Amino acid sequence: MRFRSIHTAVAYFLAGLGMASLALGAILHPVVLAVATAATVASLFATDSLVMRRGYQIGWTVGLFVLFVVEVVRVATGGSLIECSVELAVALQVGRLWSRRGARQYQQIVVLALVHLIASSVLNQGISFGLLFVGFVVAMPWAMTLGHLRREIEGNYRREDAAAQRAHVDRILNSRRIIGPRFLGATALVSLPVFVMTGGTLFVLFPRIGVGFMGESSRGRVAVAGFSDELELGDVGVVRDDATVVMRVEVDPLPSPPPGRLEVHWRGAAFDSYDGRRWTRSKALDRRDEVVRQGDRYCLSPACGVRGGQRMLYSVYLEDLDPPILLIPPGTEAIVMDPLRRGGSLYHRLLWISPMEEVRREGIPTLVVHYDAEARPPRGVSSPRQETDLSPYLQLPTLSPRGAETARAVTAEAAPDPSGMAAAVARYLRSEFRYTLDLRGVSNEHPLEDFLFRRRAGHCEFFSTAMVVLLRSVGVPARNVTGFLGGRLNRFGADGSYYLVTRSDAHSWVEVYVDGVGWVTYDPTPPSAGGPAPRSLLQTLADLIDASRLAWDKNVVAYDLDAQMDLFASMWRPSEGFDFGSFSSRTARAARPKGSLRVPWVAASLALGLVVIVAVVLARRGRFSRDGARRARRAASREPATALLARLDRALARASAPRPRSRTPSEHMIRISLDGHPAADVARQVVARYNAVRFGGDRFDRGELVRLHELVRQIRPSAAQTGRSRAADPRPEAGQADPRPTM
């Protein structure tokens, strides 16, 4: 490729990485992003004649100044400072791409791209930023080297005639011999020590300051149906095909082999009041009480401090949900959350719990909410909470008499207690009704009656609503609960298998109040038809990407001051080593299996240093040996030409035409030709072949080399040439043609 093309491609690559980093920060408006992308692509077709026009350059300068004034006015009138700054930074990059003229403009393009990357580091903490950073590390040595070469090319060929200068510089920039694949590959190797320096030293020395310090998370909050103050019948079912990840869960202890599905009801919101079309909360049950905190533990149950008994530890990495609710498994006794570090001090987040066991946190913007749920549940029991007022859970909408008759018929033969009647209703719905997501033809006025008496098919919300209404019709307290069911196994986690819970796992079920036990979970929804889809190559690739994202969140984003202290402390305990992948909460680190990877720091450092030294030595030896062999081959091919020229010089010296050391063979050949020396014709043949072999890569034929040596041997001293003195003045006589070649 031509030097100009390679330099342009590298500059545009870095500019694209910079703009992509800003775009992934979720700050740029989609319209602004589309316009900037189109303008960047179109700038590739800007011609040199257009860019060099003075009026064109002035127009861009004025336009950018006007945009700067507009952005300042927007900020002064209440606009977002970050959004306006990012838009201005993108406009500056687009303007520079449209007015690139030489090395200085290309250098400014690279600097602006680096500024974009730095700005996006506080807007985008996802793994996408890590990939963009790697791209920068690889391409930056190219940009710096090419920029330096171009600056030298443009600076060393300055002439009085600007047109001649541009023509000469353009000829060099369009050359294909300056830069090649080997040069780019060797330059890219420089990125290795740069990456070690930035990704190792700087990462270790400077912990993360915390997401939300400069604004919202780049991922944006994940909106989840069913967690708001109202729930329209049918809301949850519409997300059954949405694969957006809601949370990732590590389970301890994890069965061996781990099951493909995690059959856990992840409880989110609860509703008690149903008006025939939508669920709401009674005002008395909508209050929130602050959860009692003991250190890093938030107690949800009186039994949270009781020792003994089997417990399950669920380490949850929850996306930033809207609303900011925490998903917990049944029987959760305590939640453990590490505090935030702000301004050099620890800040414990506030948690609230409602009378219906909804747990919510402060709405602080964050990339991932990490907490550990300690659960000791009897199977199916949500909470042993003893209720004093059950009237909110017995409210009924206006229904036809047919609904109450159905409830009495279903529970007629069941045990006359809440558990028996709840089990009877759940069996009835699971056996007599069909699961479907097709809601065409559902009545908007009476959706529940349409489900029970006409369609007899629907999704989870219809089943849970029907069960609550039927149980309340026979005097059993019940409420509707929304959350997520299960989780799919991902075997590619750095610390072992974990489970993925997506929006398609959104679910609705029922909690029934049983005296002396508390709220018991019942799920009347039958399984969907078809079963789990077979695992595909695309699904495997998606699991690998998600595992990388989880490792990034745990080991990079979560690398805070506490993790840094743990890292430095482990360096002083070389025999103990450091637990990689332990940048999670202290509870999760304490509960990690003893077989997890621990590497002694001293041994690991020595081994790594030895490997690097051996690799460098082998690479240099291989390079030197290859270069030496290459030079030997070149010398072997050039040696006959050098020997032939040396013999010609000796012969010309004997023939009274010695070549001075300051004169090249070609110049000396021209001189003796002007002097009319008898050996000029032989010298012309020898010098022409010498230049072709020495500098052009040609080779002598055996017969040709013998012939030229014979011609040189026949050169004899000439008395007629001894007294000639025109060698000092090569100019021809008046009217005589000049035999010197012209440039």
Number of domains: 3
Annotation, overall tally of beta strands: 27
Percent strand: 5-15%
Helix content: 40-55%
Number of helices: 22
Report the radius of gyration as a whole number of Å.
40 Å
- Mean pLDDT, nearest integer? 77
Taken from the alpha-carbon principal axes, the silhouette is: elongated
- Beginning-to-end CA distance, first to last residue: 28 Å
Low-confidence stretches: 210-218, 574-599, 720-743
Largest sheet: 8 strands, antiparallel
Structural class assignment? alpha+beta
List the helices and strands and how they pair.
Elements: H1 3-24, H2 30-42, H3 48-51, H4 54-76, H5 81-98, H6 103-120, H7 127-155, H8 162-173, H9 181-188, H10 191-205, E1 222-223, E2 231-232, E3 245-252, E4 265-271, E5 273-274, E6 278-280, E7 289-290, E8 292-294, E9 297-299, E10 312-319, E11 321-322, E12 332-336, E13 340-342, E14 345-347, E15 351-353, E16 359-361, E17 368-375, E18 381-383, H11 401-411, H12 418-432, E19 434-435, H13 447-455, E20 457-458, H14 460-473, E21 478-485, E22 488-490, E23 498-502, E24 506-514, E25 518-522, H15 537-557, H16 561-571, E26 578-579, H17 586-590, E27 598-599, H18 601-654, H19 665-674, H20 680-696, H21 702-713, H22 719-722
Helix pairs in contact: 1-5, 1-6, 1-7, 2-5, 4-5, 5-6, 6-7, 7-10, 11-14, 12-14, 18-20, 18-21, 19-20
